[in-house]
């Protein structure tokens, strides 16, 4: 697939688990990442199901290991749902922009640790500990 480290290591559909915390639905790929999670890529859309499909695609086929979006039934204040894909750096920015450019209603940007919300470092720590990282 791609020569990038961590990209292209495909996971079967069953290798992604999800859980809800009352506001977010978290998706985790089974198996440890070969990197420390230090930031995230953000996608915004009014169509939650499109964001879930993008997240699952990247977890199964794109080398990502952790994602979240609003739970079904949760209406975000901005009326747009957000998908957070967690990764180690911004090396995937252009790749993701090119891959999802032109998808109606889908917007994209990246963020790094100084912009992560208070619960995210705890989720990343829990995820890394569970994976032995």
Q: Regarding quaternary structure, how should these chains be classified?
A: single chain
Estimate the helix proportion, in percent: 25-40%
Assign an overall shape: globular
- Label the structural class: alpha+beta
Main beta-sheet annotation = 6 strands, antiparallel
Q: Write down the Rg.
A: 14 Å
Give the SSE order as H and E letters: EEEHEEHEH
Query: Which band does the percent of strand residues land in?
Result: 25-35%
Question: For the largest beta sheet, what order do the strands appear in spatially?
Answer: 1-2-4-5-3-6
Mean pLDDT: 80
| Low-pLDDT stretches | 1-8
Could you give the count of β-strands?
6
Count of DSSP-assigned helices: 3
N/C terminus separation: 26 Å
Question: Could you characterize what this model shows?
Answer:
This protein has a six-stranded antiparallel beta sheet, with helices on one face. Helix content is 26%, strand content 26%. The chain has helices at 48-61, 93-100, 119-130; strands spanning 16-20, 24-29, 39-45, 66-70, 81-87, 107-111. It is globular. The two termini are 26 Å apart. It is built from three helices and six strands; from the N terminus they run E-E-E-H-E-E-H-E-H. The protein is α+β, with helices and mostly antiparallel strands.
């Amino acid at each position: 697939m791609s020569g990038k480290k961590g990209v292209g290591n495909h996971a079967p559909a069953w290798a992604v688990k999800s859980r809800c915390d009352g506001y977010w639905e978290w998706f985790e790929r089974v198996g440890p990442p070969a990197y420390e999670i230090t930031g995230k890529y953000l996608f915004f859309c009014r169509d939650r199901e499109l964001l879930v499909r993008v997240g699952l695609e990247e977890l199964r086929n794109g080398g990502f290991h952790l994602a979240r979006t609003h739970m079904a039934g949760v209406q975000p204040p901005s009326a747009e749902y957000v998908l957070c894909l967690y990764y180690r750096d911004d090396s995937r920015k252009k790749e993701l922009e090119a891959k999802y450019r032109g998808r109606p209603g889908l917007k994209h940007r990246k963020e790094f640790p100084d912009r992560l919300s208070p619960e995210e470092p705890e989720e990343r720590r829990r995820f890394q500990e569970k994976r032995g990282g």
